[in-house]
Structure formats: structure tokens, C-alpha cells
Amino acid sequence: MILRNAALRHGRILASPMSRPCLRKLTTELKTDDRPDADSNAAAQSWPAQQSSPAQPKTMSATTSKKRKQKLVQEFIMSLGSDSAQEHRGDAWTKSHQVGSLGAVLTPAQQFAEFQRIQKKTRSLGSHVERRYAPTELISNPPGPEDVSLELLMASQAHMGHNTSLWNPANSRYIYGVRQGIHIISLETIAAHLRRAARVVEEVSYRGGVVLFVGTRKGQMEIVTKAAELAGACHLFTKWTPGAITNRDVILKTQATKVVDHLDGELEGFDMYKGMARPLLPDLVVCLNPLENYTLLYECGLKNIPTIGVIDTNVDPSWVTYTIPANDDSLRAMAVVAGVLGKAGQKGKERRLQDASRGNVSWNTSPELTRHMSKEVQAAVVKRKEVMGRMQSNVQGFTEEEQKLLRLRNGDVDLEVNEDEMVNMMSKTALDDAGETVVKAVDGSAGTKKQPGSMGKRLADIEAQLQRVSQQATHIELAVVGKLQT
């Protein structure tokens, strides 16, 4: 039995641990000395004939020893009630005491006020840490390409490679050395390749390209989502569907397509094109874990889509177009890489929108959309010609004899009047009719000066007719100008 738990077995709780003297009292063995003393030895040597029996050791029977131990334990337990009372002393700062050897006695409130006064005076002393690490800061406020430094890359453990037995010899140009059996990637190489990739993302975003950020490992969802949000791009944090690029017409046929203008505003009137348009292909793919997305990189190679990938020491750098040698197992390093590329895409998007607001568009319309727009324009022109033909037959500027002469001059074929000539004729006819109406109204007003109210109504009707005619002429001119520009 463990003696420290003796009181617990008897239903009591110890107020204080057992003392060492008590533990010495409760020993379970009785040591005896079996060696004979010097007198007996001497007698045995002097009188060899007389053999005395050796002294029997004083041993306790098992029952007597057990009862004695139980009695001692009971006595000790009974004594705990009186001996366990201890004086409770609180912390020194909760009581008034003297501060310093010659200081005055201060209460706890006065001590705290003195502490605040000293802290306020000494706050500006000592070292000042300018940049401290916050786990969420790299995602909420990532660094830009101009903020990339060797200290930042080392702090994010971007230089840590894999074991030397797992390396790919093609990465020897990126490796600085070996330390404790692990390859160390050169920080200068990481910074140079990261800045180059940032320039690529910025130019693709400036020219209105579609950028896809891919990170399918655990913990990379928030990283790629934030980077895509900054760059105005797309993101993927789940498993890549094989064939989403090479067989996009079948796999992505249910995905919606959006047509935007030079200021990224969605355009209306392209419902027919959205229903028949093919799914879009990304113009650039940024992959944070190429080992798990080899199928994606292979499909991008088949379609000549450039890729940017984070290449660790165990990855083949020939899988991607633009390499970023870094530690792909560190979430902090991946947050730095994705944040820098996201900031670069944001900068390119802002440049593109600024130039577009000035009238300089940095991208070209896709060939499919151009063909669709040309077909729509041709259909609109044909429809407009039909409407203009109907209007031409109802023009009051031509008499029946004049229309007959025009048909005879063109071989009994209806005359196809140019749209500009048609607009001029319609506007001239409308103005002549309005002028005749004004003259008639003036003559009538001169003949009937006694009806001022009727004259005012006629003038108001004439002005309304003139406004309608001018509006019709303006609409026709705008339609013709739009056709000429297209």
C-alpha cells in the first residue's frame, strides 16, 4: 500500500503531505544484525569444545507487524486534524507594505499608480520591434513585389528544402547548400524568380487575361481566395477535374459566361452569344502545389497555356513555364508568394482601368465574339433597310410621276436610295411640311385677329410637331453613324 494515499483510502483528504520522519516511522521491515559480537567470537576461539548456539534474531511475526502498521497509520490520520491547520498568507502585493528599503508604506492602489508612472516614463526606452509577425496579416494585407526581401523570405522558411535523398537533380541550380541533411534554397534566387513571376501576372492582368490561382492542399483555401480577389481572377482550392481544359465543352458546358466592356461592366443584349459560346480558357495558371496537380499542368501544356509553379527540391521544374523555387510545405511561405502575385495582378488591373477611362484599351475582343457581333450588325442592317424601304414608299416628297420616272430610269426596279440621302430627304421633307404649316398658321392668324386663344393652340401644336420631326431625324442620323463606324 502506498502510504501517501492511506488517508484517501479511509475517506479523508490530506491537508498537507506526510513528513519524512513519519514515513521513516512507518517502515515495513525491521533490520536486525545477524553478526555475532566480539565477545562471543573470542569465547568461541578460546573454547572450541564448548559450542554455544547462535543467537536467534528478534523477528516479528507477520500478524503482529501488520497490526502495528495499521495502528500507526490510524494514529497518524487522527493527528492530521490538529496538525494540518496552516496559516493562509496571501500575496504580498494585496497588502500594504514598504516599497524599497527607505520607501513609504503604500496600498495596492498606490503601488499600481506608481507602476503606471514608471512604465510611462520608461516606455520609450529599450529596443523597438518595427515589424512583428501576425499569422493573418500576410493574408489580409499581403506584401507587394517591391516589399520582397531576403529577411521576409527567411522568416517565412521559404529556403527550407527536402532531404538530400529526395532531391531532383534538375533543381541543383536553385540550391545554395546542405545543412543537417536538408537542402537549402538560395534566397537570392527565390526573390529574383518571384519578382519575375509578379511581372508576368501584372502584364497578363493589364491585358485583360484570365488568371487562375490553384492551391489544393489543406490550409491553402484562404490564401488562393484572397489572391484571386485582389487580382480580379479565378481560384481553385478543391481537386482538379481532369479534362476541364481539354474537354471543356462537355465538362464546363453549364458554366455561365459574361460579356464585359472596357471598364469591366457587364453588357446586355448578348443572351444568344452566352448560350452558344464555348467555355473560357485561362490565360495564366498559378499553381502552389504542382505535385498534386500534375494533370492540370499537363493539360495546360497541351493547350499552350503558360503556368507559374512553386518548385521545391523534390519537384521537376520542367512541369511549369515560370518557376518559383521555394518551400511548398510552409503555409507562411505560400501566403507570401500568393500575396505578392495577387498584389501584382491588382496593380495590372488598376493600370488597365485607368488607361480604359482615358480611351486606351489594352486588350482585343476575342475572334468568336467579333464574328458574333458582325453577324448581329449585318442582321440589324438588313432589318433597317427593310424599314427604310417601307418609309421610302410613304415619303411625301415624291409624287407618283416622279416615282414612275425613277423606276423607268432603273429598269422598272425600285430605287435603292443611300441611307445618308434618305436621311437628308426625310429631314428636308419634314422641315418643308413644318414650314408650310407655320405659314398657314400665320396667314390664318392674320385673317382672324379676334381669336387669340385658337392661334396659341395652333402654335403649340406646330412646335410639338417640329420637336417630333427633329427627334426622328436625330435617331436616324445616330443609327446611320453607328453603322458607318462598325
TrEMBL record:
Keywords: Ribonucleoprotein, Ribosomal protein. Signal peptide: none annotated. InterPro entries: Ribosomal_uS2, Ribosomal_uS2_bac/mit/plastid, Ribosomal_uS2_CS, Ribosomal_uS2_flav_dom_sf. Residues 31-68 are annotated as: Disordered. One of its GO terms (cellular component) is mitochondrial small ribosomal subunit. The keyword Ribosomal protein applies. GO terms for biological process: translation. Residues 42-57 have a biased composition (Low complexity). GO terms for molecular function: structural constituent of ribosome. Gene3D superfamilies: Glucose-6-phosphate isomerase like protein, domain 1. Belongs to the universal ribosomal protein uS2 family. This is Ribosomal protein S2. It comes from Conoideocrella luteorostrata.
